[in-house]
Specification:
Bound molecules: 2-acetamido-2-deoxy-beta-D-glucopyranose
Oligomer: single chain
Number of helices: 12
Shape: globular
Structural class: alpha/beta
CATH superfamily of the largest domain: Glycosidases
Radius of gyration: 23 Å
CATH architecture of the largest domain: Alpha-Beta Barrel
Strand content: 25-35%
CATH class of the largest domain: Alpha Beta
Number of domains: 2
């Protein structure tokens, strides 16, 4: 498509404004982030996992199609962490003939059961998605002696399900134990429970789990197979310090594969939370991720944790399952792109976006309920854009130093904008611009035509030629439907989540990279564009 046609297409939008020229290095800058394979991954609420995955008689093919779409872009399907708050409520009962029995106590949560038992059929859900690797979350929170017995009873079932077809990624014991002394949903440890108490319990119970594995799945007990993500703290500044846990010997047995931390950019009912101020705001993302970057930097100096990959085992926009109108909007999808790529650029090496049935921030709702309709939700399109931008990283595992792909943040002066560069084998491949300036299409009559910003880039002369442009687009930041990536819809209604090319969205655009390596790309407010270079 010629430049003039692009401008014609964009002429339905408002006035153009131009930024300064942005220089992008042809090779990755020092410290550029190296994502692990499956960088865009998911965390699924323990109690919701059967809804998302289905079971052997009724596998959830819609979910599987959405996971395949991401796998096709990156060479590896997303890793699935099964866990969250309900992981520490879940009590196994081997006599139960259904996957779960949950009781919602509305004074504690209206979103998920706070009393939960699960039975052997639960583990069928690990068999419905081919070529997918999982972590299974064991209960550490409930520590009555019957709950401890139930934990050990569950282990043979977990290993029977995960010990085949390469399904097991790692295990996890306990979700956000740094809130065990303070949780509003029930305090499960005394005030004198310290980092050392946590470490002692964690080492003791992972040892007991290993003993059970010896009996039922002994080939999962080797040093390269019996591994965990930990400590899975809610963040920094809670009642336990993650750094102290490593100093106190959390990895004394060498049993940890990933350092896992959790992050939410804000809370669903926190006063003052807005789309523009909280989500579509790069400064906010930088300030929030700074906690994890400090933790990662400090841990790099500690025996035991040094050299382990740092991941977000659970993250999403607004804690307490998201806010309607914010977390389910296209603006949240743009936030997700900026947040994920900022993590990637700073060596947070995998991000598990948290999901649960009826949650407002979901990438997709896996089943029809009376609270939410089955479907692909706006944030999924952000996941797709991130996966497409990062490209194939299937060689980058936690135990190799493959560096074929790296991601760099390109600093911009306006906090409502962000830009990133992707490198393959040290050569510049792609540039992403996320224009997070809010455009509310439902207020179009007062907001006027949608403004467009022109971004001028300077790249190496070796990139001269035509570069294709792919867009993450919707009518505005408040759109919750009608979202496309590069003209593709992944909606449930069209082909059960598989990509469908829409004929009413412009595709095939390109920009000309001049012989001096300069080019410009127009990006409407509240949208993102990737320029695919050939350097
Ligand atoms: C996407 O992945 C699925 C599952 O691996 C595979 O069956 C399908 O052929 C792939 N599609 C493309 C276009 O690569
Ligand atoms: C386990 O489930 C069975 C079958 O529903 C039930 O009879 C039994 O009471 C349960 N056990 C416990 C400890 O709750
Ligand atoms: C499998 O899932 C279907 C649909 O949710 C459900 O009706 C059925 O009871 C489940 N089977 C088992 C063994 O849990
Ligand atoms: C919540 O309600 C249950 C009864 O459904 C009650 O037993 C419990 O004490 C209540 N918890 C809180 C924290 O209010
Ligand atoms: C539960 O945790 C408390 C505090 O760490 C500990 O004193 C108690 O022994 C634990 N109970 C069991 C059954 O492990
Ligand atoms: C675990 O091993 C024991 C002893 O071999 C066996 O009886 C039991 O069925 C196994 N459990 C599972 C879930 O496979
Ligand atoms: C462990 O043994 C089981 C049963 O023989 C086999 O199916 C599985 O692939 C093995 N897993 C690993 C990780 O070696
Ligand atoms: C912690 O407090 C409990 C009572 O809540 C007490 O039984 C226990 O001995 C205390 N542990 C330590 C290490 O002080
Ligand atoms: C964006 O976030 C920064 C840092 O938290 C904050 O100072 C600023 O006010 C936010 N911008 C808007 C428009 O709210
Ligand atoms: C991170 O560490 C730096 C240097 O120690 C400190 O100045 C900063 O306040 C810390 N930021 C956060 C968010 O913890
Ligand atoms: C590295 O990790 C991958 C994926 O988890 C695994 O397949 C492979 O066997 C591991 N290699 C070594 C040398 O441990
Ligand atoms: C584009 O086509 C899709 C699928 O047919 C439809 O849902 C959507 O409303 C159309 N968009 C516009 C702007 O016409």
């Amino acid at each position: 498509m010629a430049k003039s046609q692009v401008l014609l297409m964009l002429s339905i939008f408002g006035a153009l404004s131009t930024c300064q020229t942005i220089s992008v290095s042809g090779n990755p800058p020092a410290g550029a982030g190296i994502p692990l394979e499956g960088f865009v991954s998911f965390s699924i609420e323990f109690s919701s996992f059967p809804d998302f995955a289905g079971n052997l008689s009724q596998p959830n093919t819609f979910s599987n199609n959405l996971l395949n779409n991401l796998g096709n872009l990156t060479g590896t399907k997303p890793f699935i962490r099964v866990g969250g708050n309900t992981q520490d409520y879940a009590i196994f009962n081997s006599s139960l003939d259904v996957a779960t029995v949950g009781i919602i106590q509305p004074n504690l949560s209206t979103d998920y059961p706070t009393i939960l038992t699960f039975g052997p059929p639960y583990f069928e859900s690990y068999a419905t998605w081919p070529d997918t690797r999982f972590s299974h979350g064991f209960n550490l929170g409930r520590n009555s002696s019957s709950a401890r017995d139930a934990l050990l009873d569950s282990v043979p079932y977990a290993c029977a399900a995960l010990g085949q077809d390469g399904r097991l990624n790692v295990w996890e014991l306990g979700n956000e134990p740094d809130l065990f002394k303070t949780s509003a949903q029930g305090i499960v440890r005394p005030a004198n429970w310290t980092e050392q108490s946590y470490v002692d319990e964690w080492l003791y119970w992972t040892g007991r789990i290993k003993e059970v594995l010896q009996g039922n799945c002994s080939n999962l007990t080797t040093a390269t197979e019996y591994l965990y993500m930990a400590p899975s703290f809610a963040g920094t500044g809670n009642s336990l310090d993650p750094i102290r846990t490593w100093e106190d010997g959390l990895d004394n047995n060498g049993g940890i594969e990933y350092i896992s931390s959790h992050n939410y950019i804000g809370g669903a009912t926190q006063p003052g939370v807005t789309l523009q101020g909280t989500l579509m705001n790069h400064s906010m993302t930088v300030a929030s991720v700074a906690h994890q970057l400090n933790e990662s930097r400090l841990l790099a100096g500690i025996n035991g944790s040094a050299g382990l990959p740092f991941i977000l085992g659970e993250t999403n926009s607004l804690y307490n399952e998201g806010a309607p109108g914010l977390s389910n909007s296209f603006g949240a999808a743009l936030w997700g792109v900026d947040f994920n790529l900022y993590c990637a650029a700073n060596n947070i090496r995998r991000v598990h976006m948290h999901q649960g049935t009826n949650y407002r921030y979901d990438s997709w709702q896996p089943i029809e309920t009376n609270k939410s309709s089955i479907g692909t939700k706006a944030p999924y399109y952000g996941n797709i854009a991130v996966a497409a931008f990062i490209g194939n990283v299937s060689g980058n595992t936690a135990n190799t130093t493959a560096q074929n792909t790296s991601i760099a943040n390109i600093p911009l002066s306006n906090p409502m904008e962000a830009a990133y560069a992707a490198y393959q084998d040290t050569v510049l491949q792609r540039v992403m611009v996320i224009n997070m300036q809010q455009y509310n299409y439902s207020n179009a009559s007062t907001e006027g035509p949608r403004p467009v910003t022109t971004y001028g880039f300077q790249v190496p002369e070796s990139c001269t030629g035509n570069a294709s442009v792919s867009r993450l687009m919707a009518n505005g930041s408040d759109a919750i439907t009608g979202i496309t990536w590069d003209g593709l819809s992944y909606n449930y209604e069209l082909m059960n989540g598989m990509p469908v090319r829409l004929n009413n969205v412009t595709i095939g655009e390109s920009v000309a990279v001049g012989t001096n390596g300069s080019f410009s790309v127009d990006v409407p407010h509240s949208s993102a564009a990737v320029v695919n270079l050939r350097c």
